[in-house]
Design brief:
Largest sheet: 8 strands, antiparallel
Number of domains: 1
CATH architecture: Roll
Shape: globular
Radius of gyration: 17 Å
Order of helices and strands: EEHHHHEEEEEEHHEEE
Number of strands: 11
CATH class: Alpha Beta
Strand order of the largest sheet: 1-2-3-4-7-8-9-10
Distance between the termini: 31 Å
Oligomer: single chain
Length: about 220
């Protein structure tokens, strides 16, 4: 069953057995509350575009965001959507969920008992890009950043930069970093740089008329229109 949860700026889609949906909504609200309370104490956390050292008593979500962002040299809020998705999905798995996902602003934390096809949205109507994920015993993070779609800050030129990693917090920070640096001329080097980080499985970049990828990714399909 699928449900959309809207809490202030958060618009998340949860797909899981119906018995898990109420807890997913509660967890999203709880995590948002933790972030809002922390930002009052540490406002720089919310606005810096560089790695940030959290307070010693910061909640787990803040510490995990700061850790992921430090790996890629971006600000902690670069991973906020992935963090909410990841930690909500972790809670559902704790409750026994074996198949489902939490998608938050295009950033996904997913656990599969079956094959799932994920489309990379990049804004070019001439072709579509899909990744087909096999069943998995663990949560996988799939996150995308774009220089042309959405409201997130980006300093790059890529239509879409997608990172697949061991969790969505790491994938979200990595996607932001990749989108900031990737150009058609340097994309191979840029992809290798991101995938070299521990916990990152693979990455993909879409430009206006081309697509490049590197690492241990699921099957990729490009459909021309």
């Amino acid at each position: 069953m699928r449900r959309t949860v809207r809490i202030k700026e958060t618009i998340a889609t949860i797909e899981a057995d119906e018995k898990f949906l109420k807890e997913a909504e509660r967890t999203i609200a709880f995590l948002r509350g933790q972030l809002e309370a922390y930002i009052i104490r540490d406002p720089i956390f919310a606005v810096t575009l560089e790695p940030h050292e959290p307070f010693e008593d910061a909640p787990e979500i803040v510490k995990r965001m700061c850790n992921a962002s430090s790996i890629f040299g971006v600000g902690p809020m670069a991973s906020v959507a992935g963090a909410i998705a990841q930690m909500t999905m972790e809670r559902l798995v704790e409750m026994g969920c074996e198949d489902g996902f939490v998608e938050n602003g295009g950033d996904i934390a997913m656990k599969n008992s079956r094959r799932r096809k994920i489309e990379v949205h990049h804004g070019n109507k001439n072709f579509r890009v899909f990744m087909e994920f096999p069943p998995s015993e663990r949560i996988v993070g799939i996150c995308t950043s774009s220089s042309s779609i959405g409201h997130s800050i980006s300093f790059g030129v890529a239509n879409a930069a997608t990172v697949v990693a061991e969790d969505a917090i790491l994938a979200d920070a990595g996607a932001t970093a990749l989108c900031n640096i990737a150009t058609p001329e340097t994309v191979e080097e840029d992809l290798r740089k991101i995938v070299s980080k521990k916990g990152v499985f693979g990455a993909l970049v879409v430009f206006e008329d081309s697509c490049a990828f590197y690492g241990d990714l699921p099957e990729i399909k490009v459909a021309r229109r």
